[in-house]
Design brief:
The protein has 553 residues and is of the alpha+beta class. It contains 14 helices and 25 strands.
Length: 553
């Protein structure tokens, strides 16, 4: 690992006022390197409290200043030290534009500004960059979504109830303090009410119905990630089409926003310099240990490929673009971690053109194989929304538990409402790198239901670990056989010789996604019923998984 010379001291200015165009004052902490400069400026805008230790660990503005940046960390409108009302995403474009202009004019600033940060902090970068502020030269929108309706508040038509409710409750405490801080009795009452909701995660807070509109979000007047106002402004494409600056995209295979990160990169790379880095990580956990599996020392975000760290890579990239106007090196634009092989690999493109879309068919006898059954058959199960399949691992973000990552699926696969299809023992390594999908020939006796498909790696000891999964919510005529497409998003996994490939098919994954109650108005009324499900195999109704398989070199 390269050791870079760092400056010895950092000067910090706390709660520096930043005026917005409408007169609202936002507050920022400014971290300055020693010396007069001029220094490039980098800006992070957060709703999570600019002074909180966890947030500062992700951003490390001290390291940024020691590396020769003026680092600005700002509370967004309506959060913590900043004035105004917080409505998720609503003011981030104009406030971001104003903040960048202010940052460029700071004493000692070079006039070149970049942005960095993950998740919500990533989306605000797209919104600001879409305004094309002249001082903005580069952005690093990491671990962030692309579409609110398919990747933030919902996925495949199902609601991300685990994410939306836990985030709303977590964000709600500052809102309650602002709303009732003038009245100690009211403040105490509402803090206790919200604390009860927090204590109910996981538990009654997730189970409460209805989910449309969301009962928990509505009752406590919580910030809503999936509200109509948020959806109107947070989608990345309308902002991205106006962005002209280079971008660095960092994500993780077990991150809840992995496909959004990839899609943002692909769209950016069509017209501006863009770089993509994907590790084995989950949302906010950038270590090699993901769930039950350790993917090797090189997969740690603090020792990325034995040569650098996520933050050092970020600051190297930003410094080069903000000072030299070019990328820091001539490396290929895509760097991915191949799980199973537990190694980094550089690529010229994404998706990989050499990956071959290969169907693996679900067959009789719980088989998963390269050839389809010629004889038609079917398998059945019943899905009861009062007893949903629990969320166990995967690319999820459910606070405080269960955790994301490669977690043993034993408790899931032992259930009668989970169909399991398994390949023979692999005679050779099989690398799957790219976007995974499934096509089910499916039938239900209700007007609506969900189909969940999960790809797993079965180790020689028989334990099955989730690799990636997806969900599709369907509506139609009862008893009708339909071809259902399920998007499992992207991954990179080497299924090793001696392992087996497994597919799960079921109808729920709770509390990650809300339960389909199998009734037309169930999400609004709470009315539910048991659904009888059929998956057709072989003959004229094939069900299969499509894997992007990279040929062995």
């Amino acid at each position: 690992m390269k050791v870079k010379k760092l400056m010895d001291s950092v000067k910090i200015e706390y709660n520096v006022p930043v005026p917005m165009r409408d007169g609202v004052i936002l507050q920022a902490d400014v971290y300055r390197p020693e010396g007069d400069g001029p220094w490039p400026v980098i800006v992070a805008r957060t709703p999570y409290d600019k002074g909180e230790v966890p947030e500062l660990l992700f951003l490390d503005p001290w390291l940024a200043a020691r590396r020769g940046f003026i680092a600005v960390v700002q509370d967004v409108r309506g959060r913590f030290k900043s004035e105004g009302d917080f409505r998720p995403f609503m003011a981030e474009a104009p406030d971001g534009e104003d903040t960048i202009a202010w940052a460029a004019s700071l004493s000692g600033a070079s006039g070149a500004v970049g942005m960095w940060g993950l998740s919500y902090l990533g989306n605000v970068q797209w919104q600001a960059a879409g305004r094309q502020p002249s001082a903005l030269k580069a952005i690093v929108p990491s671990f962030t979504f692309r579409e609110t309706a398919d990747g933030l508040g919902a996925r495949g038509g199902a609601n991300e109830v685990g994410l939306v409710r836990s985030w709303g409750v977590f964000m709600g405490f500052d809102q309650v303090i602002r709303r009732h801080g003038h009245n100690s009795n009211e403040l105490d009452k509402h803090i206790r009410m919200l604390a009860e909701a927090s204590d109910g995660i996981p538990g009654p807070t997730y189970w409460e119905l209805p989910t449309q509109p969301d009962a928990v979000i509505t009752r406590y007047e919580l910030p809503n990630l999936s509200g109509p106002d948020s959806r109107a402004v947070a989608d990345v494409p309308p902002h991205q089409e106006k962005v002209t600056v280079p971008s660095l995209h960092i994500g993780g295979w077990y991150d809840v926003f992995i496909q959004g990160t990839i899609d943002n990169y692909c769209a950016a790379a069509e017209k501006t310099p863009a770089t993509l880095v994907i590790g084995p990580w989950s949302h906010t956990v950038m270590t090699a240990q993901q769930g039950d599996i350790n993917f090797g020392f090189a997969g740690n975000g603090s020792a990325l490929d034995y040569t650098t760290s996520i933050l050092e890579l970020t600051f190297d990239w930003l410094h080069s673009w903000l000072t030299d106007g070019k990328a820091p090196n001539d490396e290929l634009p895509v760097k991915i971690y191949v799980m199973g092989a537990n190694e980094w690999r550089s690529e010229a493109e994404w998706p990989l053109r050499r990956a071959i879309e290969t169907p693996w068919f679900l067959g009789a006898g719980a088989a998963l194989k390269a050839q389809a059954d010629s004889t038609a058959s079917s398998v059945t199960f019943s899905y009861d929304p009062q007893d949903p399949v629990p969320s166990v691992g995967g690319a999820s973000f459910i606070v405080p538990s269960p955790s994301a990552g490669a977690i043993d699926q034993g408790q899931v696969e032992d259930r009668e409402d989970v169909l399991v299809f398994t390949s023979d023992v692999l005679n050779d390594n099989v690398e799957v790198t790219g976007r995974v999908s499934a096509t089910l020939s499916a039938q239900t006796d209700g007007r609506t239901t969900d189909w969940v498909v999960r790809l797993c790696d079965v180790h020689p000891n028989g334990r099955s670990y989730v690799v990636t999964d997806g969900i599709t919510r369907v509506n139609g005529e009862p008893g009708e056989t339909a071809s259902v497409a399920v998007d499992l998003w992207s991954t990179s996994m080497l299924f090793k010789k001696g392992h087996r490939i497994r597919v799960q098919v079921t109808s729920s994954c709770f509390p990650r996604w809300d339960r389909n109650l199998n009734t037309a108005d169930g999400l609004k009324t709470g009315k539910m019923r048991v659904a009888n499900q059929i998956i057709h195999l072989g003959g004229g109704h094939q069900s299969f998984l499509t894997l992007p398989i990279v040929p062995a070199s």
